[in-house]
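To whoever is on call:

I kicked off a structure prediction for a single chain this morning and the downstream step that reads the tokens threw a length-mismatch warning. I double-checked the sequence; it's 91 residues and nothing unusual in it as far as I can see. Pasting both halves so you can look.
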Amino acid sequence: MNQEKIGRFLKQLRMEKQLTQEKLSETLGVSRRTVSRWETGSNLPDLSILVELVELYDVDVKEIFAGERNQNMMNEEEKDTLNNCRRIPRS
């Protein structure tokens, strides 16, 4: 688990929702400094907050721990499969 990657992903998700750190901190009942620490990878959210983030950002917990969306991983996998198919010689 890469905390810095998770932090960057949490920041990306917050920005997609057009929330400031201040507004997110008010919504979750934490300090702005706490949000900043999550986004820099210094700390991770507590489980109760993690549940709220999953609902707010409409992502899966696995996506947060991976630090990226599952569909992005699937897209990369699909690209690899396609590239491998192109390399297969035709008879």
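Update from on-call: the warning came from a stale cache, not from the record. Cleared it. Sanity check on the structure: The mean pLDDT is 86.
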